[in-house]
Design goal:
Elements (H helix, E strand, L loop, with lengths): L3 H17 L4 E5 L6 E4 L4 H6 L1 E7 L2 E10 L2 E6 L21
Parallel strand pairs: 2-5
Antiparallel strand pairs: 1-2, 3-4, 4-5
Length: 98
């Protein structure tokens, strides 16, 4: 397990490499056991290494992708897996012959 200073160094190096690739960094979290970097849109290399996850937080479902990059986790929203609309099941009772 890395110290906080090691996590910060890993994260700063990864952010610099992502910026050099033209990837916009939205947010970061170096307090997690493995630093997490939030980006807007990945490049093809990150997409190939990504794992798709479905999160449910307080009833809200979101689809995200996570890939490991330079010792950090890089995370972005996956808009290709747009949430499917929920369908309410309606039970239709057959009409009785009178």
């Amino acid at each position: 397990m890395n110290t906080r200073q090691q996590n910060q160094a890993l994260m700063l190096t990864a952010i610099g490499r992502l910026n050099n690739k033209g990837i916009a960094v939205i947010d970061k979290n170096h307090f997690a056991p493995k630093p997490v970097i939030y980006i807007a849109k990945p490049d093809a290399q990150l997409q190939r290494k990504a794992v798709q996850l479905t999160e449910v937080h307080y009833g809200q479902t979101s689809h995200v992708c996570i890939a490991e990059f330079n010792g950090c986790l890089v995370r972005w929203d996956d808009f290709q897996l747009a949430p499917q609309p929920t369908v309410n099941n309606i039970i239709h009772m057959p009409r009785l012959a009178s």
